Amino acid sequence: MKLNEVNSAYFIGIGGIGMSALARWFHAKGKLVAGYDKTESDLTKKLVEEGIEVHYEDQLDLIDDKFLEKEGTLIVYTPAIPQDHIEFNYFRDNGFTVMKRSEVLGMITENHFTIAVAGTHGKTTTTSMIAHLLSHSRKGCSAFVGGIMANTGTNLIIGDDNAPVVVEADEYDRSFMRLNPNYTVITSLDPDHLDIYGDETAMLDTYEEFVKKTPKDGKVLMYSDAGFKINPGNKYISYAIRHGDAVADALRIVNGAFVFTYRYGMEKISDVHLEFPGYHNVENALAAITVAVDMGMEGREIRKLMRSYKGVKRRFEYVFRSPHATLIDDYAHHPEEINAFLKSVRSLAGKRKITAIFQPHLYSRTNDFKKGFAEALDKADDVILLDIYPAREEPIEGVSSKSIYDLMENENKVMVTKDYLLQELDDHNLDIVVTIGAGDIDREVPKIAEYMKNKFNPKSEEDE
After folding, report:
1. Residues 6 or more apart from 421 whose CB is under 8 A from it?
2. Are strands 154-157 and 142-149 parallel, antiparallel or unpaired?
3. The pTM is what?
4. Fewer CB in a 10 Å sphere around the end CB: N or C, the chain?
5. At 318, which helix (H) or strand (E)?
6. pLDDT tens-digit profile of 311-320?
7. How many Å apart are CA 128 and CA 154, to the nearest integer?
């Protein structure tokens, strides 16, 4: 099936960040869109508000009859859907056009100049930065982002039919191999998703094959340290704060913002202000600015837009701030991400106390990187470990949050369930609190924010 033949699109797992972007894209194109998800979330509520029907029980009779007509109906599913899913098996067994999310994304990008951002971490922020810059350029852009952009409140930007497409290239399940990028960005190559790849070598081999999909007249932009790990077989541009083709000179912190001079060949952009903090985000900004320069944007325009960039939800997101305490939420779920995040928090916090609340994501990842997690979390003053969020996995015998706990050198550590988290906070002298993880810890963040608001900004009798 070709895109112009699609009249209706039904999504199995519509609440995922990538799936919801595709659902919004089809809806914006005037197609009939609906879907199933296991649980209601802020994302699914937003889809319903936008006019997309969503249900939460795996039942065929909940599907509108219009989606049960084979001709013109596209069924899109996420690999996270179990193989015994009733709706999925009905569509597959009855001759419907059933495609993975990555296949559909590949179709959308097939006839557009595509900028694909891949990497084991940093890709969501980098994709959103590129989208923010290019969407304000003369050409504009369409963008599929793996997070909610604070500037737009959505994970999707739709440009003109001839505008370039910016897409987050997901390595999970080798999904990015469906894409055909003209401009490839690689943000990092630390081992991850070993439950899919088996080992680091197989993961790197797949990345190398992905990079080779870039045509000879295209470009490859790669983080400098990642560039030494694979040989993409063609010349590429490198970037890093200190060493690379694109670098950040005179980097300093001014009133909580990271300020630097961007240099790339003869291109120089002074006093770039990044209000979205973190040394790792400076590196993400270097990648985004380089793409923008290569796409013909002027330095003064880039400088102005970078200052207005507000970040991505759950990426170094300030949730609560008062003179006495601060709550920052971050999606970090890999040891290197946590290292970078806590390093940046420390650079802003100075000697203030950092209390880290961490929810490990996946049994396999916890087992593979338990030592790295322990070393990264030791950078916080206090650590509260929650139970592992299993996502798509069954438990692995002997693997739990205690696997990390036992390897930590920091004695100021505790393990609790989510039900007792707020009670545990009563026993801590809170100053800088950070919530870390890619599971459902985000559902606890509003509760923690309310707890801190009541603790540090209590209502007076006059407010009542």
Report:
1. 357, 384, 386, 444, 447, 448
2. antiparallel
3. 0.83
4. C
5. strand 317-321
6. 888 888 999 9
7. 10
